[in-house]
Amino acid sequence: MVCALKRARGIKMNIGQVFEPEKKKNIVRKILEELPDWFGIEEAREQYIRESGQQICIGAAGKQGYIGFVCLKETGKDTLELAVMGVLEAYHRQGTGRKLFMAAKEIAREKGYSFLQVKTVQMGKYENYDDTNRFYISMGFQEFEVFPDLWDKANPCQIYIMSVG
Fold it and tell me: How confident is the model over 138-155, as pLDDT tens digits?
């Protein structure tokens, strides 16, 4: 996928795949560290950063640098997972996440995958995660299954899926 200049509600940004492992990790670190309400658990955040170097990574760059990203990993021969996604809070609700997601869906299609999945905290537990759930639902994801103890009892894991066809 080639970088493309896109506008997300008036914000000029370049959306494109990032290929260099260290650059991926740097982008992911910069953004996740700015989102403590979602990525405040250091151990989990560091794992996302480590793993991002080997994943498909799509970045959104604005005038001031990277403002968002999404990383994808294969979870089965037919499925890619949105492993981690972050958009700086100043750019929430301005179309950045939607543009990143659409680029991810396009890459999944191009690579011959049939499904996308994403895991998040179940709706109704935390306001910030309720916003995240609503975002995924608005993108076309459907509820698949809840694992009450996958992470821990305070954070039941909601899995959403969608067809990329």
Answer: 999 999 999 988 888 888
Supply angle C-alpha 140, 161, 16, rounded to 5. Answer: 70
DSSP class per residue in the chain: ---EEEEETTEEEEEEEE--HHHHHHHHHHHHHT-HHHH--HHHHHHHHHHHTTSEEEEEEETTEEEEEEEEEEEETTEEEEEEEEE-GGGTTTTHHHHHHHHHHHHHHHTT--EEEEEEEPTTS-HHHHHHHHHHHHTT-EEEEEEEEEEETTEEEEEEEEE--
What is the rounded distance in angstroms from the CA atom of residue 81 to the CA atom of residue 91? 23
> What is the C-alpha to C-alpha distance for residues 6 and 41, in angstroms, rounded to an integer?
33
Smallest Cα–Cα separation from 33: which of 23, 18, 22, 44?
44
pTM above 0.90, yes or no: no
70 contacts 64 by C-beta, under 8 angstroms: no
